[in-house]
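In this supplementary section we document a worked example of the pipeline. Step one takes a protein sequence of length 718 as its only input; no multiple sequence alignment statistics are reported here. Step two produces a three-dimensional model, which step three serialises into structure tokens for compact storage. The input and output of this example are shown verbatim.
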Amino acid sequence: MTPEFLANSKVQTAPKLQTVPSFLANFGYNKRDCSGKLGNSGVGYSPILQSTSTRRSFSVSSSRAVDEEEAIERLTSVSKGTSARYEESNAPLRRLMRKGVHSNYFQALWQKQKRYTQAQQQELALASSNSSVAFISGLDLANLVVNADLLQLSCGAIKDLLAETNQDEQLSETLSVRYKLVNQSNCTIIAFATSPLCTKDHILRGRDLVSSSTLKEQGFPLFDFLCSKGNPSFSVHRAAINLFQAYFQELSQLKAQIHDLKTGELLVKSQLIVTGHSLGGSIASLFTLWLLDNIKQTSKINELPLCITFGSPLIGDQGLQRAISGRSIWKHCFLHVAANKDPLPRIFITSQANPQYMPFGTYFFCSRSGCNCVDDPEVASRLLKSTISQVSAEEMGIDDYSGIGKHLKSRLIMRENSQLGQPATPPLRQGIILQLNAVGVEITAQQQQNNSINDLISELERHINRMALQMKATDPKKLNQVKIKMAYLEWYKKDCKTKGIGYYDSYKNLYSISDREVTRHKKVLVSYWKKLAEDAEQKPQKEGANMRETWLFAGTNYRRMVEPLDIAEYYRQTGKRDYKNNGRSKHYILLEKWQKEHTEKLAGPPNDKKKQSVAGNLTEDSCFWMNVEEALISCKLLKDETSSTAEKQSARQFLNWFEQYVMDQINNYAVSPEIFLERSSFMKWWKDFRKMIETSHDSPLGDFMKNARYRQYEIGQF
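The serialised model returned by step three reads:
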């Protein structure tokens, strides 16, 4: 039966509000820290090389990680988390407040956020309520971006770069790339721009997509790291990738100034911002992706670069979107600023059901009416499409974006507490209308009766509710349930030992009701870890390895505890053989492989700590009991007069190997002392084997067992 301490335990959960985006954690300084003139800079440019490419068709399959880190960090989080997790997720907001962001509005907003924390003790019953909180918070998050002066700093660097462009370069018919590296005490900015200024014609001339396979054939596989088993291909905007490829040598020199190839660390001591306008923003995005792949995987979120683009076109397809969105950290390193009247961010937006181009990262939509942040690609795409009717004939320059930023900042200061009287959890529909108004889609009460407006609001409402349901699948509550299931198995293991039998043999023979209850707990654990292992395998190599390290210890502990139960079920059926090839689940194979890759460099003789704790340790080889079962079968084959000569020879060879295998495990203190319990399958094998071997048979294991040295082993003194 279930132990009392587990039967009475309840997982305490509370609704989790949308977290402040991780890109704000990357930007921990305020306007006063980074004011003043831009520092020393370097400018590089050369004529573009013309090249052509062919279009390729390909297919992609989606993959989604369900690790705890992603569940906590998702921008549009509507899952439920603990109060501690909520406090942790809002660390960037706390940091901004400590840094001196002290307008009246933000002081009041900070108090409202604190009330949210206290209110977490009550559950929000409806998914739509959770969704509305997540959706409406995009308005507050956008205001945080404005207040942190991210826009003005980036615009200033781009404007300075453009001011250095001479008239001859502006009159050139061929695009070239210019960049500027600015070093300050609290930040480093890399600004990109094109010369002459990029127009719609430049972008449309290279509007087709270039697949990753085509780039590889052309000898430019730089972005192959974005491909994975679950996302085998992607495509990028031809004009952007051709421009990047043409300036690869210059960009490599720039990268060498800020990144140490040997250590993988950034050489800049302050926050790195990579920014650009129009097609220069596309170059900034590609440069940031390249940099992210080369940065040391253990880098903290606030040590990663932040890419800010202004009026940039979409640069890739769904494959590129999935490659970036599938990374729990990378996707928060991109902030795309799109004004409601700028045609360039919408130039590839179409009415097709399956559009070629798709957004990624966080979108900062702005107009003179307000601003909001959106990190969901589908919502961002829909908002870009819904504002096409507002665009002007001419592209918006960096001066226009700078003006909008200043206007939004002044509105924020003047507004003060005007919006703080709104309900903390407005209805979802009201939240959608507020956000649409912020990006320039003004909706009056009469307009809400309009079919097209209603369709837009309803579509966004359905999508956000779907996201709420999907987030329930990654609810951190499941992590607590998994921990409880593992705790139950730990109790079960100890309970069996008090009865003089190991948990493997007790479960195999189903001696009691608790043995049967184990099946239910095991099923939950196996389902959880199967999904986790499958998702990790779909990740690109570096991202997958980085993700796995966060739960590898738990995965190894799970495998060593649970796989013996699967082996017991397998051999419980008469006539079953060769579990490893015929019955072993793939997720055990993956977990074992990753664990070996992680610990092979740490291999060595057992230390004193391992010896002293051996009594409570799990057997390290989760297939140990499979080998015991095969050894028992081999003994039967040798005793069976009907066995063929070949079968007996194979059985002898296996038993010789098994003796050495067990002794190696003992010497490394890698087996649990439970295998020596009187009623264990291993002791049953030893009794059968001892009767069969000749008196003259001498082996280290024979000596160990005959002299009962396992008693010394159990106390770590063998």
